[in-house]
Amino acid sequence: MSLEIFSYGFMHRALISGAAIAVLCSVVGLFLVLRRYSLFGDAIAHSSFGGIALGLLAGVYPLWTAYGVSIASALVITRVRDKYNISGDASIAILLSSGIAAGLVIIGLSGGFTVDIFSFLFGSILLVGMDDAILVLVMAGIILMIVLLFYRQLLYSTFSEEQAQVSGIHVQRINYLIVLIAGITVVTSIQLVGVLLISALFVIPNVTAIMYGRGFLHTAVISVILSVSAVVAGILISYLLDITPAGTIVLLSIGMLGCTMGLKSAGLLSR
Amino acid sequence: MIVEISGLTVRYPEILALDNVSFEVGKGDFLGIIGPNGAGKSTLFDVMLGLNTKYEGTVKFFGSEIRKSRKYLGRIGYVPQNPVFERNFPATVRDVVHMGLGKNSDAGRIDGILQQLWIHELAGRRIGELSGGQQQRVFIAKALVHDPEILILDEPVTGVDRQSTDLFYSILRELNLQGITIIWSSHDLDAVNKLANHVACLNRTLFFHGESEEFFSDDKLVKQYSEASMQEHMHQH
Q1: Chain B window 34-93: which residues touch A at a Cβ cutoff of 8 Å?
Q2: Which end of chain B is more exposed for a tag (fewer CB within 10 A), N or C?
Q3: How many helices (H) and strands (E) does chain B have?
Q4: Contact (Cβ atoms closer than 8 angstroms) between residue A136 and residue A126
Q5: pLDDT number for residue A84
Q6: Half-sphere exposure (CA, 13 Å, Cβ side) for B222?
Q7: Is B62:B92 a contact under the CB 8 Å cutoff?
């Protein structure tokens, strides 16, 4: 491999923001996977599609409108689910389809966009500018600080809502907090793998890490290592082979999952 | 009195779950709550733990009505009947006990509690890998780690083997001797007789509350309870 690619500014930005997004998605995704909210990230990502279309129509930077629409719709659907006792999978389906539908209608109303909306759908990590890279790092820092600050409450309410409530934790507030940080994480991460593949970063490294049979912190660390490895390797391989980074990252993650399954089947992961 | 329950009534759409229940628990008491299935024990626990706030009457912990503040929850520990959690959840015994720490609790207590309950050797094992008896000791450790004044246990040995149950009972006795007030619901009359110094006999209404010696020396009361339990058992099968 030529070391020349490490001298490019765009590669620095891609690798740094990609690694930050990988850490962020792993940490937030672990809570979502354990709460059986695996597809929630996917649903928020799809709702952000409506936000992106709205931003493009209004002439506003699309990520800002995506943040607003995604977070608002995630909080609303969580409230509706609690109030009307709608099941988790049904609420995810509602959120997912409404975001895509809103996006398609807005695109139709505008007569189409000159901006390449495919970069939002499938990601464009190699095109990340300095402003975007800074935004990713700041958002990642804020979210990880929130997770650290509320670590016990997040873990306890994920483990058992009833027991957490009995210990005095405001479980409903923590549920909204999870939705809020998941919404911010998804929109922040769209630049890497796009709307359509975002949930892979939330789910695959965590499902893989859980198989190692470790405690919570070790599982989170394993997930982060796997995720960062897949993202960094995916960016480099895709550049060298001139293929899509998002697809490469997801396939590498799937490969790691397959290898872990093989190790587990061979009894090499039992403690 | 650190727990005062007065005129507690809970209505569900088609059933009166608790009818005018009143009793008190003093500091250091070991109260055994007995009653057949469907007697309202779980409803009573839900109210005491703040999970059900739709009730009539007053429920006071440490002198304050629990609807006004949830702060009392920081002074109690709770061990559920069958803790519901994902078996594959990546939490070790130490992780689970750590969850029980309050805002101002000392994390250094974790090792001491694990040793006290004879589970220190399991500290690094995942909770889902343990037997029912071991899991119950972990959940007691979690309930105790923030140094509570009251320990509330809802039929904690359901589905646990005899040896683990005996160990569990000896731990409860030891905790009570250390000054922790215990409120414990159980179907095991022999164990209640041996451990509890007060008994509350519930069947939607409270038909006995007093010292356990008084209850167990009254054959008529014990027979009445046994028949009610047997009828419920026959009804279920």
Answers
A1: 49-51, 70-71, 73-74, 78, 80, 83-86, 88-92
A2: C
A3: 8, 10
A4: no
A5: 83
A6: 13
A7: no
